[in-house]
């Protein structure tokens, strides 16, 4: 039977060795800790494409910096220094903010790695160095709602220039009416159209899904687009928006569209206007005319975020109310807003 004197002597020995009882438990029970070059490829294989697109470069940066280091070797200070260095060396663009995004993304990528390592039982939460690295404070976004004449100029250029103005004009109208993100349009399928009720099923970031109303005019344009560019009935589950060749559009279509608009409208190029500004424009109009609750539902932010207080639970807008806002904005009656 172990006496108190023996326990005291054991603790004193551990103290002299610079160890804690928890570390002894970890060494006895935990799995061998892999290196970054071994573990990061495993993490990447399980990541969603959209997440990988954001974190991929920063995961590779960490792997290149510490290829042969075990996950438990870098300290909090070393991670913070790597994040700061990444921000300083970030590519300078017109809308750059001193490398803040690069710094934040590297910290987020490191947290992603260590969160997986915790889930896999490779490290304990209190030994996670990424938990103690603070992200830089976010500065307000420069995006804002566009004025009516600015929106009209953008639509005019898109509909009268380029190799496929019909497609570009349809894309812009889709974003203006639905206020969806770029991923919402790229993931749209012919099977996602509810023609009778003029609704489209949107899939956006964070696996968020919702039925969003569109005007009868836009629904007819989508059906005409499908009839013209979808040559196979089995393509119902494939991307809806397609080029004249029948191939689905990608993110590059947006890049070329806004680059072209910027060539004709200097202020678009200078301010780095993108499709996300259309989302700001529509949601600002809805909020000003129909209130916060309907604007939140229109945007797909239907669940309270915990910071709005308990009242937010009781001010959820219905789909019918979103349809009312759309009908007022487009000037067209909607089947669900009768």
TrEMBL record:
Keyword Cell membrane assigned: no
Record-linked Gene3D superfamilies: 1.10.150.130, Intergrase catalytic core (1.10.443.10)
Q: Where is the Tyr recombinase domain?
A: 141-327
Can you cite a GO biological process for this protein?
A: DNA recombination
Which InterPro entries does this UniProt record tie to the protein?
DNA_brk_join_enz (IPR011010), Integrase-like_cat_sf (IPR013762), Integrase_catalytic (IPR002104), Integrase_recombinase_N (IPR010998), Tyrosine_recombinase_XerCD (IPR050090)
Sorted UniProt keywords? DNA recombination, DNA-binding
A molecular function (GO) term: DNA binding
Please give the family membership noted in the entry.
Belongs to the 'phage' integrase family.
**This protein's name:** Site-specific integrase
Q: Which organism does this record belong to?
A: Nocardia panacis
Instruction: List the top taxonomic levels of the source.
Output: Bacteria, Bacillati, Actinomycetota, Actinomycetes, Mycobacteriales
